[in-house]
C-alpha cells in the first residue's frame, strides 16, 4: 500500500513538472507533446497579407513601399492639338507656343497673329479699292443698297403714282454715299484689328472657313465700327444730297391719304449696309489670299498659310492640304 502511495505521489510530481515545462516551452519556441521534448527550429512568420511562410521559404508576392520609397516608370499621353500642317509637333517655352510644320518651317502664335493682321489689312485695302469707285456698290447686285425696309412699300406706292424717278434717285444716292464713305473705312477697320489675340489668330488661321478672319471681325467689331463710321456716313449723305432726296420721298409718301406715316434712321441704315457690303468684299479677298498666299506678296502670309495648306514656301494650289487646330 505504501509502495502504491509513493508511486501515485511520484506520478503527480512528474505531471506537475511536465505542465510547468510545457508552459515555459511556449515562450521559448519549444513544442512539448506526450512523447517528450521536441524543439522547433524556427517560429512561423507571416507576410503583410497574412500568409504563413514556412521556415526556409521565401515569397515574392507584393512589395510594400513606405515613406521615402520611390517607383520608376514611364507615363505617356497622347492627344490632338498644337499642330499647323500635317505631321507637325508643338512645344511650349516661356508661354509661347511654337509649331513645326510638315513643310519644314516653324510657325508660332505670334506668326499666326501677324498673318491674320496682314491678311485682313490686305483684304480691307483690296475691298475698299473695289467699292470706293462709281458703281462699286450700285453696280454690284451682291452689295447694292436697296431702300430701307420701312420705305420699300412707300417706294412701290410712289412708283405706281408716277414718282418712280424720285425713288430711283434715292436708291442711287444711297449707293453713291456708300461708295464715297468706303474710302474712310480703312483706318477704322485697321484700328479694330487690335482686338484680335494670338489665340484668336490661331483659330482663324486653322479654321475651315475661307473667310474666317472676316467673319471674326464682323462678329466682334460691327457695333464699334457702326459708332465710328456713322458720323462720316452722315457727312457724305449731306454732301451728296442724299438726305434731301430721302426727305423728298418721305414727304411725298406721307401726303398720300390714309397711309401710315413712315420714317427711318437713314445714317444708321446706310452705315450698316455699307459695312455689310465691305465685309462681303473683304471675305472674298480673304478667300482668294488663302487659296494662293504667295500671290499676296507677303512673306508672313506665305509662311503661315503655306504651312496650313501643306505648301512649301506657300506655293499656289491647295491639293491635299490639311489643317488642324493648334
Number of helices: 10
Cα distance, first to last residue? 111 Å
* Helix-strand category: mainly alpha
Rg value: 45 Å
Count of discrete structural domains: 2
In spatial order, strands of the major sheet run 5-6-7
Mean pLDDT: 74
Q: Give the proportion of residues in helices.
A: 40-55%
Question: From the structure provided, what is the oligomeric state, counting identical versus distinct chains?
Answer: single chain
Order of helices and strands: HEEEEEEEHHHHHHHHH
Beta-strand fraction estimate: 5-15%
User: How is the biggest beta sheet arranged?
Assistant: 3 strands, antiparallel
Query: Are there runs of 5+ residues with pLDDT below 50, and where?
Result: 23-48, 53-104, 312-326
The strand count comes to 7
Shape: elongated
Structural overview:
- This protein is mainly alpha-helical.
- It has 10 helices and 7 strands.
- It has 2 domains: 36 residues; 225 residues, no CATH class.
- Strands 5-6-7 form a 3-stranded antiparallel sheet. A two-stranded antiparallel sheet has the order 1-2. A two-stranded antiparallel ribbon has the order 3-4.
- Strand 5 and strand 6 form a beta hairpin.
- Helix 2 crosses helix 6 and helix 7 packs antiparallel against helix 9.
Amino acid at each position: 500500500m505504501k509502495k502504491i502511495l509513493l508511486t501515485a505521489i511520484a506520478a503527480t510530481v512528474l505531471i506537475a513538472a511536465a505542465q510547468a515545462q510545457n508552459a515555459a516551452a511556449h515562450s521559448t519556441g519549444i513544442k512539448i507533446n506526450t512523447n517528450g521534448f521536441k524543439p522547433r527550429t524556427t517560429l512561423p512568420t507571416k507576410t503583410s497579407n497574412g500568409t504563413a511562410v514556412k521556415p526556409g521559404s521565401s515569397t515574392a508576392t507584393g512589395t510594400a513601399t513606405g515613406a521615402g520609397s520611390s517607383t520608376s516608370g514611364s507615363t505617356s499621353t497622347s492627344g490632338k492639338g498644337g499642330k499647323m500642317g500635317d505631321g507637325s509637333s508643338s512645344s511650349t517655352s516661356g508661354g509661347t507656343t511654337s509649331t513645326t510644320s510638315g513643310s519644314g518651317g516653324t510657325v508660332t502664335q505670334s506668326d499666326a497673329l501677324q498673318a491674320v493682321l496682314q491678311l485682313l489689312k490686305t483684304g480691307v485695302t483690296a475691298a475698299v479699292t473695289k467699292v470706293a469707285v462709281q458703281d462699286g456698290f450700285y453696280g454690284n447686285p451682291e452689295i447694292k443698297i436697296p431702300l430701307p425696309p420701312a420705305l420699300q412699300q412707300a417706294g412701290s406706292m410712289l412708283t405706281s403714282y408716277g414718282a418712280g424717278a424720285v425713288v430711283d434717285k434715292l436708291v442711287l444716292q444711297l449707293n453713291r454715299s456708300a461708295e464715297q464713305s468706303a474710302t474712310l473705312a480703312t483706318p477704322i477697320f485697321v484700328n479694330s484689328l487690335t482686338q484680335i489675340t494670338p489665340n484668336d489668330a490661331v483659330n482663324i488661321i486653322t479654321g475651315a472657313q475661307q473667310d474666317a478672319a472676316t467673319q471674326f471681325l464682323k462678329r466682334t467689331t460691327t457695333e464699334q465700327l457702326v459708332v465710328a463710321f456713322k458720323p462720316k456716313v452722315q457727312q457724305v449723305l449731306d454732301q451728296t444730297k442724299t438726305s434731301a432726296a430721302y426727305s423728298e420721298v418721305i414727304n411725298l409718301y406721307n401726303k398720300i391719304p390714309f397711309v401710315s406715316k413712315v420714317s427711318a434712321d437713314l445714317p444708321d441704315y446706310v452705315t450698316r449696309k455699307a459695312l455689310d457690303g465691305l465685309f462681303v468684299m473683304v471675305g472674298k479677298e480673304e478667300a482668294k489670299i488663302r487659296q494662293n498666299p504667295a500671290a499676296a506678296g507677303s512673306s508672313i502670309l506665305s509662311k503661315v498659310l503655306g504651312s496650313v495648306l501643306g505648301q512649301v514656301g506657300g506655293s499656289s494650289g491647295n491639293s491635299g492640304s490639311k489643317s488642324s487646330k493648334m
